[in-house]
Design goal:
Elements: E1 4-5, E2 12-13, E3 16-19, H1 31-43, E4 48-50, H2 59-68, E5 77-82, H3 97-111, E6 116-121, H4 130-142, E7 146-152, H5 156-169, E8 176-178, H6 192-198, E9 202-205, H7 228-232, H8 234-237, H9 242-261, H10 265-274, E10 281-284, H11 289-295, H12 305-314, H13 335-338
Parallel strand pairs: 3-4, 3-10, 4-5, 5-6, 6-7, 7-8, 8-9, 9-10
Antiparallel strand pairs: 1-2
Length: about 350
């Protein structure tokens, strides 16, 4: 597997990052099988694992920690995230110093490690000054508990603001951004990806299969798959929504393109993300060993120019077919902010 540099850190990571969201109660509750999947990914050359405190309320981090015990920790670039609610207390969430310095200890304990390679802000927090967040994260880096820091699902304006504040205040800067990016969710091409490229920020794309829409199971004339995610997020899956009907049409057309190109839609979708010049790695999130095996070949796939052109005809560059897939709602667009 050909490794890439994560931003300007000098750290080499695999173009496929193993996402651990589906390990635990949210996906595969069998710890032993989840650990086997992690070990298989490492044996295949993946050296990059991404999880988060909120995934199955810490269970995902615990599983990853078990998998890396016994000597495999040093060979892995280990990333996790904070921000989402981890309890009923209103202060058990967010991007405040108070929460960060508490929650990092919990993540370190669950992961069974003394340090986190990449500690990421899972979402922007409109109620917390970015200087507050960067200052707390800088202290963690200086204490040796965290090596690098990053953001996830930040709009371009806040990526730039964070870089400016870090420079002006002498704080650690975000070394990477983790945006949603797939054949069906291309909005970040307009501003986020070019911004990251200009500032030397690595990009770790989440959901390259568009939440399962590009798994090959969503095809016209077939019964749509029933999943927990579809039940939990009807705005992204309910086919009575015109935006989701457009996704079904596009997934079907893209499936036919993949068939003609002699590859699976899974391979084509992940390879397409990985081959963007601004992208460092795509996060794959298998729930089963079969899903992992289906996704691994994408690391070595390259897509010809004519296929890329035909993909652009199905979903134009810079377009999210369903705005709900953007992963973050700008609070400035909420009703209360628009009313006078």
């Amino acid at each position: 597997m050909e490794y890439r540099t994560l931003g300007r850190t000098g750290v080499k990571v695999s173009p496929l990052c193993l996402g651990a969201m589906m390990f635990g109660a949210w996906g595969n509750a069998d710890h032993a099988e989840s650990i086997r999947i992690i070990h298989r990914a490492l044996d295949a050359g993946i050296n990059f694992i991404d999880t988060a405190d909120v995934y199955s309320r810490g269970e995902s981090e615990e599983i990853v920690g078990k998998a890396l015990a016994g000597g495999r920790r040093d060979d892995v670039v280990l990333a996790t995230k904070f921000h989402s609610a981890m309890g009923d207390d209103p202060n058990e969430r967010g991007n405040s110093r108070r929460w960060i310095v508490r929650e990092v200890e919990a993540s370190l304990r669950r992961l069974g490690t003394d340090w986190i390679d990449l500690y990421q802000v899972h979402r922007p927090d409109p109620y917390t000054d970015i200087e507050e967040t960067l200052s707390a994260l800088t202290d963690l880096v200086r204490d040796g508990k965290v090596r690098y820091i990053g953001s996830s699902t930040f709009p371009a304006s806040q990526i730039v603001e964070a870089q400016w504040v870090a420079r002006e205040r002498g704080l650690e800067r975000f070394k990477c951004e983790q945006p949603p990016y797939s054949l069906l969710v291309r909005g970040v091409e307009a501003d986020v990806l070019p911004t990251c490229k200009r500032h030397g920020i690595g990009v770790i794309a989440w959901s390259p299969l568009a939440g399962g829409w590009l798994s090959g199971r969503w095809r016209k004339g077939q019964e749509p798959p029933r999943t927990r995610r579809a039940e939990r997020l009807p705005e992204r899956y309910d086919l009575s929504c015109p935006e989701n009907q457009r996704k079904l049409d596009a997934a079907d057309a893209l499936g036919r393109l993949a068939d003609e190109a002699g590859m699976s839609l899974v391979e084509m979708a992940i390879a397409w993300v990985v081959n963007h010049p601004a992208v460092t790695a795509a996060i794959i999130g298998p729930r089963t060993m079969d899903q992992l095996e289906d996704q691994l070949p994408a690391a070595d796939r390259s897509l010809p120019e004519d296929l890329l052109d035909r993909i652009d005809e199905v979903v134009p560059p810079g377009v999210n077919l369903n705005p709900a897939d953007a992963g973050w709602q700008n609070p400035a667009l909420e009703a209360a902010a628009r009313r006078r």
